[in-house]
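Quick one, probably user error.
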């Protein structure tokens, strides 16, 4: 009998916590996401280029907010190879 009362108390407390969080989110007083909003018209994450070295190894040039990252991917995981400030890339010339 004692364990059922404890289980019921835990369920009630969790229900109150979930209900409170739902209420606070609905009123706009709480956030559950820690992401910064993207600037209007500009994505926060952009894949600039990808180079396949082998079927299982590749290099990715990625722009994240105001940083440009060179990331190497392999079966063992990914590695940050280079990082720097983001710069505007020149437009590729159009072939006619």
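Nope, works fine. Designed sequence:
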């Amino acid at each position: 009998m004692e364990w059922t009362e404890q289980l019921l108390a835990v369920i009630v407390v969790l229900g109150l916590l979930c209900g409170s969080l739902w209420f606070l989110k609905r009123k706009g007083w709480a956030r559950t996401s820690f992401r910064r909003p993207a600037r209007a018209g500009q994505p926060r994450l952009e894949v600039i280029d990808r180079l396949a070295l082998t079927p299982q190894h590749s290099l990715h040039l990625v722009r994240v907010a105001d940083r440009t990252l060179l990331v190497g991917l392999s079966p063992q995981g990914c590695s940050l190879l280079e990082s720097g400030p983001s710069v505007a890339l020149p437009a590729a010339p159009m072939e006619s």
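The radius of gyration is 24 Å.
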